[in-house]
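Long-time lurker, first post. I've been practising inverse folding by hand and with some scripts of my own, and I keep getting stuck on stretches where the structure tokens seem ambiguous. Below is the full token string for one chain I'm working on. Before anyone asks, I'm not after the true native sequence, just a reasonable design that respects the backbone. If someone could post their per-position residues I'd love to compare against what I wrote down in my notebook.
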């Protein structure tokens, strides 16, 4: 029996929104860590490491996210019969695989964007590759990676709606269920859209706050106004 949209339905959508946030935080954090490793590997002196990282990135970026979700849902139980994953863990794995490839490219570009004068000065001081990476390159690259990283996280939040096809009850899945019960898709999906907007807007404001706190915007503006010679000297 059909009924009208009520407060209990809105509460169900809020629970779905919470699960969307939890899913994206888990997948975003894991994808960022894996992407950092891949980004470092893709810009390392080792030819093998660069080949492995670039091959992974090209493969994953060439496959639709929906296919990755289906592969994780059907493929993992077939390859590892003893492993019993919930829909949430399956969704986290799929989104992590997807996010790591894109975050790897963001970190690779950020590492390459660090002025060569910085690494040359570190070499002149006798620092090893690992110490140059840790103390000179990565601190600057992490600040450069913040704006594109926040943009990708917002895109990941919206793309997470695809995991509803494997039965995980996040925001989109909750909206579909309520729409079928109430036969009021316009109201239901309007609320869903508003909740997605609130989540993405909150992430955007959090990213802006972090940029201001870390000083990445100020440093970028100052770098643009400095002559290139001064930038290379670190003035």
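-- Answer (accepted) --
I ran through it position by position. Result:
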């Amino acid at each position: 029996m059909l009924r009208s949209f009520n407060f209990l339905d809105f509460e169900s959508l809020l629970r779905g929104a919470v699960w969307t946030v939890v899913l994206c935080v888990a997948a975003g954090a894991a994808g960022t860590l894996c992407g950092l490793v891949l980004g470092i590997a893709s810009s390392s002196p080792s030819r093998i490491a660069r080949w492995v990282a670039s091959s992974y990135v090209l493969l994953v970026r060439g496959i639709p996210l929906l296919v990755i979700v289906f592969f994780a849902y059907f493929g993992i139980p077939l390859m590892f019969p003893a492993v019993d994953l919930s829909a949430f863990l399956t969704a986290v794995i799929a989104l992590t695989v997807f996010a790591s490839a894109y975050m790897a490219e963001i970190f690779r570009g950020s590492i390459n964007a660090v002025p060569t004068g910085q690494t040359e000065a570190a070499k002149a001081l006798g620092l090893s590759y690992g110490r140059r990476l840790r103390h000179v390159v990565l601190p600057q690259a992490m600040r450069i990676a913040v704006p594109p990283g926040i943009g990708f996280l917002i895109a990941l939040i919206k793309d997470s709606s695809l995991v509803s096809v494997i039965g995980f009850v996040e925001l989109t899945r909750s909206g579909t269920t309520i729409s079928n019960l109430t036969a009021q898709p316009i109201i239901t999906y309007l609320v869903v859209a508003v909740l997605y907007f609130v989540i993405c807007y909150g992430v955007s404001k959090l990213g802006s706050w972090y940029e201001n706190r870390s000083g990445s915007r100020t440093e970028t503006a100052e770098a643009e106004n400095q002559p290139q010679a001064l930038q290379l000297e670190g003035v």
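A couple of notes from the structure itself: Residues 220-224, 226-235 have pLDDT under 50 and may be disordered. The chain has one domain: 7-233. Happy to go over any region you disagree with.
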